[in-house]
Amino acid sequence: QVQLVESGGGLVQAGDSLRLSCVASGGAFGNYAMGWFRQAPGKEREFVAAISRSGRRTGYADSVKGRFTISRDSAKNTAYLQMSSLKPEDTALYYCAAKIGFVDTSYYTGPNAYDAWGQGTQVTVSS
Predict the structure, then answer these.
(1) Residue-level pLDDT at 27
(2) Which end of the chain is more exposed for a tag (fewer CB within 10 A), N or C?
(3) CA angle 96, 29, 101 (to 5 degrees)
(4) Which residues fall within 8 angstroms of residue 96, CB to CB, at 6 or more apart?
(5) Over 90: is that where the pLDDT of 46 sits?
């Protein structure tokens, strides 16, 4: 079972940028499709972005499309979420997740699809 550790969160102002990292260990990183989710206080966990096992396909929530970019570096066993033009409504605990990807070009948007989760990293955007 892969283990995931997120980092890179923090307190920023609206309009700023942040890059979140998710380091995977204990599994063959190239076998996993990766996703980012977030959960704000009092709200359900929601999909943010996902990337296929190969990295060739990505998907985004409408609320972050054009502002966030997901990527992966197999040499570093790391997935990234580059966030720009941050808004106060982006404030949440951000989680990365991994799913064994049987299809090279599939990514997954539902949280129940994922096999492993990190502990989360807090992103707070002040207005």
Answers:
(1) 86
(2) N
(3) 80
(4) 4, 6, 20, 22, 34, 35, 36, 37, 79, 81, 117, 118
(5) yes
